[in-house]
Amino acid sequence: MKAHSLTGKILQGVAIGGAVLLSAANPYFGLRLIKGFKRWHSKAEWRKFHASLRYLDRRGYVKIISHNRGSVRASITKLGEWVVKSIDIDAMKLIEPRVWDGKWRVVIFDVPVNKSGCRQALTEKLKELGFIMVQRSVWAYPYECRDEISILRAFYGIQRFVVYLEVNEVEDELDWRGKFNLKQK
Fold this sequence. Notes:
Number of domains: 2
Strand content: 15-25%
CATH architecture of the largest domain: 2-Layer Sandwich
Largest sheet: 4 strands, antiparallel
Radius of gyration: 22 Å
Number of helices: 7
Distance between the termini: 44 Å
Shape: elongated
CATH class of the largest domain: Alpha Beta
Low-confidence stretches: 19-26, 36-40
């Protein structure tokens, strides 16, 4: 599921809001909540919204409960929370500050064979984020990324097997600097 799709936005909105009440008296309430209270004038858009919400319910990402007063409540499920996290993982980017603080961030891991899919996914994400491979399970990056690594560790369920280090001095620092186009101190 793509984060920018209507279904992805609805799921993220339900996740952020915890639970959403959609009132039959005001059919635009749910759209305003999820789209930042932006007005939608098209009935076709309203149908797309409901179709997406029903899709999320069928897939088990949200639970929809109808109330006797004509309102509907949608709340996120555990599976839906996992999908929202994966949407966030897909969109994750690292911010590069203007000035390098002189520290290296090193991620080392020893993920067991029974979690090889998680190891491979972590490796691909580190490459995508711009890390360089120092050794097979040792990756380096020059900027702060502790929070992002914590999120990846938790998402893949490999917290015990991944270590994040901040290092002040590296033997091959000139080589590492060249790979990131960092200037001398």
